[in-house]
Design brief:
With 230 residues, the chain is α+β, with helices and mostly antiparallel strands. It contains 4 helices and 13 strands. It has a single domain, classed as Clam (outer membrane lipoprotein receptor (LolB), chain A). Strands 1, 2, 3, 4, 5, 6, 7, 8, 9, 10, 11, 12 and 13 form a 13-stranded mixed beta sheet that branches. A hairpin with a 4-residue loop joins strand 10 and strand 11. The longest helix is centred in the first third of the chain and has 35 residues. The N and C termini lie far apart (67 Å).
Length: 230
């Protein structure tokens, strides 16, 4: 009986200790993010994106580069260049998103509208210049542990959306926050049904001098435009 009670007390103490340790580490991650957020103006990085389809247990992988520019708060510009397996470019500015498919000489456009600006920005800011206040307003955040991602020492945090609209699309997000920069170098989006997308950003370099030209989607003459938003 004494051994059982002692084991129970030790188990409870261990759990309480682990919870306190996790909270302390989450606070440390938040502190790094809050230090990095005001100084974040842009970045350049390689990119690898793995899309997992649960029903057939299959992965598809795309690689390329990403450039982000944040000239002022709440103004995001981004250009993603997918190089393999198929060339395509995605430009995002505000609530506008355009995807250019060179083989088809077609650009697919979508304007989410001013009413969805906050939701679009919420996705774009995931780990890229977001601060702890913004994250905690939109998500329930827990600490996931220390891991290596994109060749860097990171701390993983788990975000569960508070918004029902976002939660209907994504069950949770995971961010790997680099110890050195306070910026996310890996992001994972979990959809319902077991599908997920894992984006990793190796060779990331923060760059406050990203120009508008660096994030502009330059389209050739004669390109076909097609809206894919309803």
């Amino acid at each position: 009986m004494f051994v059982s009670k002692l084991s129970l007390r030790l188990g409870v103490a261990t759990l309480l200790g682990s919870a306190a340790w996790g909270a302390e580490d989450l606070a440390s991650v938040f502190a790094r993010m809050d230090q990095a957020a005001p100084k974040f103006k842009g970045l350049r990085a390689d990119m690898k994106r793995v899309s997992h389809t649960a029903v057939i247990n299959e992965d598809s992988t795309e690689t390329g580069k990403i450039v982000v520019k944040v000239p002022k708060p709440h103004e995001y510009k981004m250009l993603i260049t997918f190089e393999q397996p198929d060339k395509k470019l995605v430009g995002i500015a505000g609530t506008n998103a355009d995807m250019f498919l060179p083989k088809a000489n077609e650009v697919q456009t979508c304007n989410f509208g001013k009413g969805h600006r906050a939701e679009v920005e919420q996705f774009l800011r995931l780990g890229f210049g977001s601060n702890s206040k913004e994250l905690q307003e939109a998500y329930t955040v827990t600490y996931g542990g220390q891991e290596t991602a994109a060749g860097e020492k990171t701390n993983r945090i788990v975000l569960v959306p508070k918004s029902a609209d976002v939660g209907n699309m994504f069950q949770k997000f995971e961010l790997w926050i680099a110890d050195a920069s306070g910026i996310s170098v890996q992001q994972k989006m979990h959809e319902k049904g077991g599908n997920y997308t894992l984006a990793t950003y190796p060779n990331m370099k923060l760059d406050a001098n990203v120009s508008d030209a660096d994030v502009r989607l330059n389209l050739p003459k004669g390109v076909t435009k097609r809206s894919i938003c309803q």
